[in-house]
UniProtKB/TrEMBL annotation:
Official protein name in the record: Amidohydrolase-related domain-containing protein
Organism for this UniProt entry: Pisolithus tinctorius Marx 270
Molecular function per GO: allantoinase activity
Lineage, uppermost ranks: Eukaryota, Fungi, Dikarya, Basidiomycota, Agaricomycotina
InterPro entries: Amidohydro-rel (IPR006680), DHOase/Allantoinase_Hydrolase (IPR050138), Metal-dep_hydrolase_composite (IPR011059), Metal_Hydrolase (IPR032466)
Keywords noted in UniProt: Membrane, Transmembrane, Transmembrane helix
Domain Amidohydrolase-related: 152-491
Length: 942
């Protein structure tokens, strides 16, 4: 045990009754007693002396006094924290940096935005914010000056819910430390003890402006353990401990100056389906486990309080050691209000349960995480003990399990309107934390104010973590965690120009794409008042079916542009001049005319005319979705709501009834009117190509269906029964067939299947063969297989590679072989070893995978992984264009999710058109308001 400073020792007077006191000795004793009392947070009413000349303090007294003194001291920075001249994380030799002429979003509610200001970074902290002059820069001879040129500067992004380092990329069995499966109650575990410093995601997350992350244990347990806040920059020490930001002083029982207040601890709890599924428990079981654990912690706390009451009054005889249990000491700290508790809870029942738990055991809750139904029960949240917890959530990621089924994109706005703090989170790697800013952007798009949207990833999580005295703001004295953006941070595709952590620049020779000047201000987002109100009115499940088709003549005024398919290409056929906007006339699902009003007025021949002002909006080809099980599942986590998984012929015994040359057809398992499909339709994605779900070599035959259809017998519901044949070649799991086995089986199926069967048709190029493959080596093998089969058949396989994380490595070879690529997802992540060699794009590389493939003449489409993200397809293609430095035009961007996909997947050209108000389908300001459907002969208002 470390020695405590001498001023914490206690002087004990020995005396006999009725003996005269030595006044000098008594004065000294009183002074010491007063000093000790001043150091204690609880009042000591009297000094008690030992009634025995030979008595003295026991050996453990000093430690007991220290522990008792600290019991009720609340965490926080020392009083002199803002007088610090350098950060505790300062790296010697780091030069001071001056950022000149910045547009600053500060995080301060009193004045979020400052224009044309300078920021001085030195010794790991922000030294100055304002107009720098000779006086403020005096003494800085080695100053690095960066002319920001008016670009936006924000605090570094704080990810309050991350598994960086414990769920590492690429995912490998030897570095999977997110969850323990040793029991539902594990408060003694610590994410720090599994923190991997070699996670490939650190660099990627920094390139997205993330500087700080709260690394949580997973949600397999009711109490999963203690979390730790880290800075993402690599350190010279290269250890997990060196990444920590204000770790608790009590890690491994270390000691510091007891005059300092303790630091906040973080802890992960979880309720609902996760711990229930892992341990076979019901909600009743889980909450009994919570109550049992907290009751045990409460008893320890009461023993400690009783013990310290005796210490205070000097009752040392038979007192023994301070009562504690290393397993539960962190939970006892929760009851003392010294731990930020983060709780994974989704539904109203879980939220209510946990609010009651906080009141029963009287501890505050920092935040509910995920909390998809929190927006439906704001008053319940406000009844939590001590304070209203923040809500840490996704923007649009929902419906993947029953608990998330009622999630709403309007939740951030609704919660904010009810005075509840909103935090946008990544749950990395569930969502790549590199794009945590995108969560804030989407929250803003659906109604959260600009300042609250940016606060949700900076100042609010900093405050919830108890670290808002040093991160989350641009203020003098705060940590020098700074991000310069190439456009307004709420503009789609905003990318860091440079990132500083602790005053150290993190991006070496960053690549910057030129952005339109219109993206240098916060986007004016659409009005979703009615939709937000409906989300609450209908308990999270507002009607989504389009019940307003019309065959009336529709006259759209104030039209900004019209784009159309011409053959297999997309071209802009009309663009309004600066002098005025055009009109477009629609009837019975047909675009009759577009352009100047005078040229189209003759088409208005009916009395049944509807007029609509598009406010500079557009008409463009509808989009196509591919890559997820959209249309084959409603809720991924509920077996009864999905089609299921195709049996793998290399891993299962196939029943006799399925033997032969036939393969599974997705059309036979289609589910219509799923919420994800209808939301996609309302976002301009009117059709989807979906293949059977498979975890093996052969998936089956994909189908094309209308995302807006009510059922399978509705006219136009199934666009094409069969589109393409889908297989997958990959490194899967231990014990699965080797890649060489999979390729051999595929070769045999292509060369030796019976005439007219799917593999025979694919071999002859009559239907596309879509192979899911990530790894460049596997893709190279597939190209050789294509050449072999082409030689054998005298035809050419219409081969498409999907997934394709490493396809850019073979851009030239893919183009030469006339093989197309569907990049899925459109913004890559090195999730597995076979996909680790991604091309990340700006600011880490000039080119992205999409732009590289297009540069070489490869036909490229984009895909998604999960159905909920289909609705965001238009933002995905806009992002791809914006980060291409002008190399991808608007028409090419639209093709990524329309004509190119149709060509690569064997789908016939779709004629649907999307009408947007307030901008084009690629603009964050625009809202989809209608669908023109020639196939069904009608127009539908959205």
């Amino acid at each position: 045990m470390d020695k405590l400073p001498i001023h914490n020792e206690v002087v004990v007077a020995r005396f006999r009754p009725r003996t005269r006191w030595n006044l000098k000795y008594l004065s000294l004793l009183c002074l010491c007693g007063v000093y000790v009392a001043a150091q204690w947070s609880r009042s000591i009413s009297r000094t008690v002396f030992v009634d025995d000349e030979s008595a003295s303090l026991p050996a453990h007294a000093r430690e007991a006094l220290y522990k008792c003194k600290m019991l009720s001291v609340k965490p926080g920075p020392p009083d002199d924290f803002y007088q610090r001249s350098q950060s505790d994380r300062f790296v010697k030799g780091t030069p001071p940096t001056l950022l000149r002429n910045a547009s600053v979003w500060t995080g301060d509610s009193a004045g979020y935005e400052l224009r044309g200001v300078d920021i001085l970074l030195d010794k790991g902290i922000i030294k100055f914010v304002g107009q720098a002059d000779q006086g403020s820069l005096y003494g800085y001879s080695n100053l690095v000056t960066v002319d920001v040129g008016g670009s936006w500067v924000t605090p570094g992004i704080v990810d309050m819910h991350s598994h960086l380092g414990v769920d590492s990329a690429p995912s490998l069995a030897g570095a999977s430390d997110t969850n323990s499966l040793k029991g539902p109650i594990l408060p003694w575990l610590r994410s720090l003890d599994g923190l991997n410093t070699h996670d490939d995601a650190y660099r990627l997350s920094i390139s997205g402006g993330v500087t700080t992350a709260n690394v949580l244990p997973g949600s397999a347990n009711a109490i999963g353990g203690q979390a730790f806040v880290i800075k993402l920059r690599p350190t010279a020490e290269r250890s997990p401990s060196s990444m920590l930001l204000e770790p608790p002083y009590t890690i491994n029982d270390t000691r510091v100056d007891p005059s300092l207040p303790p630091r906040w601890r973080q802890m992960k709890h979880a309720c609902g389906e996760n711990p229930g599924r892992v341990y076979g428990n019901t909600r009743m079981d889980t909450f009994w486990a919570f109550r049992q654990a907290y009751d045990e912690a409460r008893k320890i706390k009461e023993k400690q309080d009783d013990y310290c009451a005796k210490v205070v009054t000097g009752q040392w005889e038979g007192l023994g050691d301070f009562p504690q249990d290393l397993r539960l000491e962190a939970l006892v700290d929760v009851l003392r209000g010294r731990v930020k508790v983060h709780t994974h809870c989704y539904e109203a029942v879980d939220l209510d349960d946990f609010v009651r738990l906080t009141n029963e055991f009287q501890f505050p809750l920092a935040a509910f995480h995920h909390a998809h139904e929190a927006y439906l029960v704001p008053e319940t949240l406000k009844r939590a003990y001590g304070n209203t917890p923040a809500i840490a959530m996704f923007a649009t990621n929902a419906r993947y399990k029953r608990e998330a089924y009622r999630g709403s994109e309007f939740a951030p706005r609704i919660l904010a309107e009810n005075g509840i703090d909103v935090v946008m989170k990544s749950d990395h790697p569930v969502l790549n934390s590199r794009y945590l800013l995108y969560e804030a952007q989407q929250a803003h798009y659906y109604g959260l104010s600009p300042d609250l949207a940016l606060s949700s990833i900076t100042s609010v999580p900093a405050r919830v973590l108890g670290l808002d005295h040093r991160i989350g703001f641009i203020r003098e004295g705060y940590d020098a965690d700074i991000v310069i953006w190439d456009s307004h941070p709420l503009a789609i595709g905003a990318t860091p120009i440079q990132v500083w952590i602790d005053g150290i620049s993190q991006l070496h020779s960053p690549y910057v794409s030129a952005k339109p000047s219109t993206l240098q201000s916060a986007p004016s987002t659409p009005n979703f008042d009615k939709e937000a109100a409906a989300a609450v009115k209908y308990d999270g499940l507002p009607p989504l079916s389009t019940a307003s088709p019309t065959t009336n003549v529709i006259v759209f005024t104030n039209v900004g542009s019209v784009s159309s398919k011409i053959g297999t290409e997309i071209q802009q056929v009309f663009s309004a001049s600066d002098a005025g906007r055009g009109v477009a006339i629609v009837k019975a699902g047909e675009l009759l005319c577009y352009g100047a009003h005078a040229a189209c007025v003759n088409h208005i021949t009916s009395n049944e005319v509807e007029w609509s002002d598009l406010d500079g909006g557009s008409i463009s080809p509808a989009l196509v979705s591919y890559g997820s099980p959209l249309g084959l599942e409603e809720i991924h986590g509920e077996k009864s709501t999905r089609d299921g998984v195709v049996l793998d012929p290399l891993a299962h015994q196939i029943p006799d009834v399925l033997e032969g040359d036939e393969v599974i057809r997705a059309v036979d398992g289609l589910l219509f009117a799923t919420r994800d499909a209808l939301l996609a339709y309302r976002a301009g994605v009117t059709s989807a190509v979906t293949a059977p779900a498979s975890k093996g070599l052969v998936a089956g035959l994909s189908t094309v269906f209308s995302t807006g259809a009510a059922h399978g017998l509705q006219a136009g519901a199934v666009v094409e029964d069969v589109a393409a044949l889908h297989v997958s070649v990959s490194h899967r799991w231990s014990g699965s067939p080797s890649v060489s086995t999979q390729v051999t089986a595929l070769r045999n199926l292509l060369l030796h299947s019976n005439e007219g069967t799917p593999f025979n048709l694919a071999a002859k190029g009559e239907i596309p063969l879509v192979v899911e493959a990530e790894n460049a080596d596997i893709i190279a093998t597939l190209l050789k297989l294509k050449a072999e089969v082409d030689t054998h058949t005298g035809s050419s396989i219409r081969l498409t590679i999907s997934g394709a994380a490493e396809a850019h490595i073979l851009s030239k070879e893919l183009a030469a072989a006339n093989v197309g690529v569907i990049v899925s997802p459109s913004r890559p992540f090195p999730e597995e070893w076979q996909s680790r060699r991604i091309l990340p794009g700006p600011p880490l590389t000039y080119d992205s995978a999409i732009s590289t493939l297009l540069d070489h003449g490869v036909t490229v489409g984009i895909g998604i992984l999960e159905p909920w993200s289909a609705r965001s397809t238009r933002f995905d293609i806009a992002w791809a264009a914006l980060e291409s430095d002008g190399k991808i035009s608007e028409a090419q961007a639209l093709a990524l999710a329309s004509t190119n996909l149709e060509k690569l997947l064997g789908a016939s050209a779709q004629g649907d058109l999307v009408v947007t108000r307030g901008g084009t389908i690629l603009d964050f300001e625009a809202k989809v308001v209608g669908i023109i459907s020639p196939r069904r002969g009608l127009f539908e208002w959205i």
